[in-house]
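Try this one yourself first.
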């Protein structure tokens, strides 16, 4: 029996690793958060941790298990697990992404260092190591500028500074970790998702965002729809992501989630790329729209297995995710959605307190929405979002009937 060590930050219903590996002779060894442990409880090798993201006993246990069980592959789906998995592979000389590659896909400054001067435009950027750097960068490039953590996802900690007052407000309470500063890029944002096997992108599909990645700040929904092959931006975005992957130390086997702007003056400008599957409802939308389960295929590739036989028949579909509002959730609608909803996911419960959106990929309600075309899917998303807004009920957080933990919802994916 072979073993694959899995850093599992997702619920079992989303990533049923043992079901995917059934009949392959490979057994998953799962390390997961306390909240997801019950779903994997029927497996033989399951280890749960409090404070999963920061608990370094995760790494210690992974090393012990990898040695004891002679693990020959490591799988890590979540952004927060990319580096710890790569470091383990380095230590044990296992196949897959190594630390230098993981840093290039996680650290936005290292990432842009690889890409600067290449075929795809990159915003002007600098490591934000002090207030002096911020002042000098603004003096050189002017407003607006964007500051963001170098290794977070889902627009967590990202801020657009439009004037001196915004800069002063940021400098008075800066992000506690390492950040970068870059020029603001106007335009529409797109993401490109896909799969790399044996060093080659074998599946590449571009999507158009509806609303933007900071919509959660105003408790507003966001989503994305795939571009039809005849769309004028389809080939441009496919070429752009191929160029980016060629310049970066891309692993031989990985999924990827890249973001680009198309500017008003018709330039394609790079935003960022991750060596993992897109968050929010991206992976589920890909499964419905194109008949491929990216996470399953990525797991197969990491384990040296041939591609699986595929999934459901493709159809036009996109992903929609709705953040929580601020207050106590009185009613979360789970029934009666419009017929165009192909799949749904919900987090939270009645009585739970929320403080609005936390990051772009964390949602209270997520939907895969179908239609006859890209335009039809986008229109149906508006319909679903309106239905949800009419049906959900909130009350002020200071209500005496408020109950449950004060926390952000945990979703099935890494952030977009």
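Now uncover the answer:
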């Amino acid at each position: 029996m072979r073993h694959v060590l899995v850093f599992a930050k997702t619920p079992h219903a989303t990533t049923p690793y043992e079901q995917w590996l059934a009949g392959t002779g490979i057994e998953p060894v799962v390390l997961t958060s306390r909240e997801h442990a019950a779903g994997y409880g029927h497996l033989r090798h399951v280890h749960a941790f409090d404070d999963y993201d920061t608990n370094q006993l995760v790494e210690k246990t992974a090393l012990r298990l990898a040695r004891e069980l002679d693990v020959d592959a490591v799988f890590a789906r979540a952004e927060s697990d990319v580096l710890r998995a790569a470091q383990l592979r380095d230590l044990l000389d296992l196949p897959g992404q190594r630390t230098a590659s993981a840093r290039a896909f996680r650290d936005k400054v290292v990432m842009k260092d690889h890409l600067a001067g290449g075929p795809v435009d990159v915003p002007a950027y600098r490591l934000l190591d002090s207030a002096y750097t911020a002042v000098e960068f603004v003096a050189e490039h002017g407003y607006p500028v964007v500051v963001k953590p170098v290794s977070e996802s889902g627009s967590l900690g990202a801020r657009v500074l439009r004037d001196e007052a915004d800069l002063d407000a940021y400098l008075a309470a800066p992000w506690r970790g390492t950040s970068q500063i870059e020029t603001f890029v106007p335009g529409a944002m797109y993401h490109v998702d896909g799969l790399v096997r044996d060093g080659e992108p074998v599946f590449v599909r571009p999507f158009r965002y509806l609303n933007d990645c900071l919509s959660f700040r105003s408790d507003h929904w966001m989503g994305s729809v795939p571009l039809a092959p005849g769309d004028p931006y389809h080939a441009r975005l496919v070429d752009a992501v191929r160029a980016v992957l060629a310049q970066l130390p891309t692993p031989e086997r990985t999924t990827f989630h890249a973001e680009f702007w198309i500017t008003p003056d018709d330039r394609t400008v790079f935003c960022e790329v991750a060596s993992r599957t897109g968050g929010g409802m991206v992976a589920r939308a890909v499964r419905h729209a194109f008949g491929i389960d990216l996470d399953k295929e990525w797991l197969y590739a990491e384990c040296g297995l041939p591609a699986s036989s595929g999934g459901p028949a493709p159809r036009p579909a996109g992903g929609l995710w709705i953040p929580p509002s601020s207050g106590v959730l009185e009613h979360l609608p789970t029934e009666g959605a419009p017929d165009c909803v192909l799949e749904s996911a919900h987090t939270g419960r009645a009585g739970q307190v929320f403080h609005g959106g936390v990051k772009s990929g964390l949602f209270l309600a997520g939907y895969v929405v179908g239609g006859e075309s890209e335009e039809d899917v986008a229109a149906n998303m508006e319909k679903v979002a309106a239905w949800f807004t009419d049906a959900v009920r909130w009350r002020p957080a200071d209500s005496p009937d408020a109950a449950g933990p004060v926390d952000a919802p945990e979703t099935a994916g890494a952030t977009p």
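Discussion: The first helix runs from residue 17 to 20. Confidence is low (pLDDT under 50) at residues 402-415.
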